Amino acid sequence: DGVTEVLAHRSDNLRDKFMEIPCSEDYDSHRRFAGCTPRKCGRGVTDAVITREEAERIRRIAERGLSLGGSDGGASILDLHSGALSLGKHFVNLYRYFGDKIHDIFTEEDFALYRDVRQRIQQRIAQVFGISSSAMYLTKPTFFSRMNSTGAKTTHDEYWHPHVDKVTYGSFDYTSLLYLSDYSKDFGGGRFVFMDADSNRTVEPRAGRVSFFTSGSENLHRVEKVQWGTRFAITISFSCDPAHAIGDPRLA
After folding, report:
1. Which stretches in the chain have pLDDT values below 50?
2. Which terminus has fewer CB within 10 Å in the chain: N or C?
3. Residue 2: what pLDDT?
């Protein structure tokens, strides 16, 4: 590939950066929803939606949840919606596995912050792509990820392969990532890479930074292997199809 352009440096403080690109044909093989299905495609980065302090609070939620388990390999997942938690080479349901002890781990305030952050990201995506935020639905999987340099033990640990979200998860129309740690300070490697025909374009994670994009083949991407340290992020995804909607997580 040879050519790499940095779309967002860690040291940048970006109000809004947006790059429009032609939509792929991926959306044609799915039902279209007026006022939501992408007609304008592209990718954006903003440091102006979530504060660093909020990102640190969100990261602590991820750390507490993931302290209950964790993958034997380099990538651990925590999904507050479904309860999926990496444990060794498998997944367990956090809520069934730990039962009432969950109330010792998470608080109502944690879940309220999570919901608030999700709503603000949804509103920013809607604004940038010129759609109604009420036409977008949170969809699964939406999850925390913790990545380190431990070798892969299962295919779930191999997070670095290029992929297209719309192909992997048919429900996805808009994908976002909220970064919860800093590239080159908390970890090395682990940059997000958009793989375009003419060059690679990278986003360097920074706590509080939101990267968002339309989910089709126009945004083929991968994550570099983490070389050292620990990289935390949360993937929050949206569908235009109400049949794929999920609710916000709640502390039962």
Report:
1. 1
2. C
3. 62
Is 252 contained in some domain?
no
The CATH number of the domain holding residue 32 is 2.60.120.620
Burial of 217 (0-12, 13-18, 19+ CB in 10 A): middle
Q: Which residue has 């920074």 as its token pair?
A: 206
Domain count across the chain: 1
Catalytically active residues are 231
Q: What is the pLDDT of residue 251?
A: 83
Tell whether 141 is covered by a domain.
yes
Q: DSSP per residue over the chain, as a string?
A: ---EEEEE-TT---S-EEEEE---SGGGGS---TTTS-SSEEEEEESSSS-HHHHHHHHHHHHHHHTT-EESSSEEEE-TTT-EEEEETEEEEHHHHHGGGHHHH--HHHHHHHHHHHHHHHHHHHHHHT--GGG-EEEEEEEEEEE-SPPPSSGGG-TTS-B-HHHHSTT-SEEEEEE-S-BTTTEEE--EEEE-SS-EEEE---TT-EEEEE-SGGG-EEEPPEEEE-EEEEEEEEES-GGG--PPP---
Q: What is the pLDDT of residue 156?
A: 86
In a domain, 234, yes or no: yes
Instruction: Note the pTM of the prediction, 2 decimals.
Output: 0.97
